[in-house]
């Protein structure tokens, strides 16, 4: 018995935001002082470290649940199923629907319920709920769905990851340039095929690491102090990820029973190109190997970091043949891994 992906979909917003977009921004440090470097230098440094040249923003009339619905619709069409046959809809996000130009998060009803409504699902036995787990939310949703299927509670699930981070950024914080919007989704079901989800791992580090990503006030001291924005301690996150993610990936992969030579791709959360490269290199070093060329697809250059959407969106792009250098064939073994707010780490091994 296995949990098998039968359909994938994504939604990439149409607004392309280049680094030039931020030329007129007034970037400040934590104390409210103007940064010494000009914005062009800051943007070039960002590109050098993260790889980000562009990112996508949702249209003003779109919200996170809208993006999630579009990705879900495509996944359902790709799976060629009746949406009323879904037993669970799991929607991973972090900030709910934040309408353009507002500062209030809206999660009532849940985003999963909104998607179920938009899909026209009348089956009341289809359970819809939201999952808040930081950037690893979609991977965790897949682990939840797998557990439901393995326990016999469900036969078919829809797992969505969507976010509009452009709505929760501090325009005076240079980290604003990292974040983006997007959505991805997958339909999974029970299968007696040999393919499917083979192993998984999840972990939460909260002793010292809880506030590496947090909601904080604007760097502009004249702004309303009660308004909060996404903030991060980039150095701490980088050090945490390199110290903990490779080992977690190895533990998960070893549980799968495959040999490291069988691993074809690593689909990792698109957070920072240099960080992801370092994680993958350290993972292979644990096997006394060098990372193979082309093992890690990257799309952060053009799409930025859209949190829970990075992994399912990237998977859909590969499966739709949109990345010339990357293919996934029947029988291929793929390792999915993510790290994010919490601090949470998770991974699963999947054979296609």
Describe this structure in words.
This protein has 352 residues and is α/β, with parallel strands linked by helices. It has two domains: 2-194, 3-Layer(aba) Sandwich (Peroxisomal Thiolase, Chain A, domain 1), CATH 3.40.47; 197-351, Thiolase/Chalcone synthase (Peroxisomal Thiolase, Chain A, domain 1), CATH 3.40.47. The protein is 28% helix and 25% strand. It is built from eight helices and 13 strands. The chain has helices at 39-50, 64-79, 111-118, 137-150, 234-256, 273-285, 300-303, 310-319, and strands at residues 2-11, 15-18, 54-57, 88-92, 127-131, 156-164, 181-191, 196-204, 213-216, 229-232, 263-268, 333-340, 344-351. The strands form four sheets. A five-stranded mixed beta sheet has the order 1-7-6-4-5, with helices on both faces. Strand 4 (88-92), helix 3 (111-118) and strand 5 form a beta-alpha-beta unit. Helix 2 (64-79) packs across helix 3 (111-118). The longest helix is centred in the C-terminal third of the chain and has 23 residues, at 234-256. The protein is globular, with a radius of gyration of 20 Å. The relative contact order is 0.20. This is 3-oxoacyl-(Acyl-carrier-protein) synthase III. Keywords: Acyltransferase, Transferase.
């Amino acid at each position: 018995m296995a949990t098998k992906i039968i359909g994938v979909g994504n939604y990439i917003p149409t607004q392309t935001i280049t680094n030039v977009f931020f030329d007129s921004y007034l970037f400040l440090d934590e104390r409210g002082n103007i940064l010494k470097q000009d914005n062009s230098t800051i943007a070039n440094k960002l590109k050098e470290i993260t790889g980000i040249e562009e990112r996508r923003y949702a249209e003003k009339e779109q919200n996170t649940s809208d993006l999630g619905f579009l990705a879900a619709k495509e996944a359902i069409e790709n799976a060629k199923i009746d949406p009323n046959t879904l037993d669970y809809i799991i929607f991973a996000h972090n900030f709910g629907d934040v309408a353009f130009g507002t500062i209030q998060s809206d999660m009532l009803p849940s985003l999963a319920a909104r998607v179920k409504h938009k899909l026209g699902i009348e089956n009341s036995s289809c359970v819809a709920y939201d999952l808040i787990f930081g950037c690893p939310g979609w991977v965790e949703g897949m682990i939840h769905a797998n557990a439901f299927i393995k326990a016999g509670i469900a036969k078919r699930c829809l797992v969505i990851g969507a976010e509009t981070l452009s709505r929760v950024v501090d325009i005076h914080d240079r980290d604003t340039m990292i974040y983006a919007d997007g959505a991805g989704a997958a339909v999974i079901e029970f299968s007696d095929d040999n393919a499917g989800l083979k192993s998984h791992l999840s972990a939460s580090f909260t002793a010292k690491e809880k506030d590496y990503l947090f909601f904080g006030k604007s760097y502009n001291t004249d702004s309303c102090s009660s308004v909060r924005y996404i903030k991060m301690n980039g150095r701490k996150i980088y050090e945490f990820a390199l110290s903990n993610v490779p080992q977690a990936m190895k533990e998960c992969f070893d549980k799968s029973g495959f040999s490291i030579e069988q691993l074809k791709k690593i689909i990792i959360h698109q957070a920072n190109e240099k960080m992801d490269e370092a994680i993958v290199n350290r993972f292979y070093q644990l096997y006394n190997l060098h990372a193979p060329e082309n093992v890690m697809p990257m799309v952060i250059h053009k799409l930025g970091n859209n949190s829970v959407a990075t992994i399912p969106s990237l998977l859909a792009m590969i499966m739709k043949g949109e990345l010339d250098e990357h293919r996934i064939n029947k029988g291929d073994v793929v390792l999915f891994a993510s790290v994010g707010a919490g601090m949470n780490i998770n991974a699963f091994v999947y054979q296609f």
